[in-house]
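Below is how a single chain appears once it has passed through the pipeline. First comes the sequence as given, then the structure the pipeline wrote out for it. We keep one example in the README because the format questions we get most often are answered faster by looking than by reading.
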Amino acid sequence: MELNIINSQNEMPVKKGYTISLIIKKFKGHKDVEIHLFRPDWDEKEAQHYDWLKLLGDPIDRDAPIDPVSSRKVLLESFTIEERDMIMDYMKKRYVSRLSAINSRPLDFPIPLGLIPLSEIPEDDDVGCIRFEEIPNYTLPFPVHGLYILSQHEPIMEEI
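Resulting structure:
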């Protein structure tokens, strides 16, 4: 299993801001499926102390309507470096035989307005969410969800 960890070259403006994705070898009939991890909930009091004017940048599309609350969630769904390390240790131990890689990198600051947080992407037959805390023997002290999009990955061909 590969570990691809990029740490911030500069001091992060807040403690949160690290993203994590897993590459699962085989998942729901597809191979090498990328699962983007995120926090489904966060401390609203912590969010009130952020200087959002410095953390959020220009819009991706100046002609599209922008919801700044939605853009804030991109940061709020991310992890602190301590949470990142806990999650990575947990995933390495629990799913070592099923994973081909764990990737982590910091968000780019300022975060562009107009990004869609993972928690707001609707689920359907192609897009789904793993709720790791609902899996038996989950040991992390906070919930972690993982978003996947099956159509982005090659189907596993059945051998005849």
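DSSP finds four helices and eight strands in the chain.

See the next section for the split statistics.
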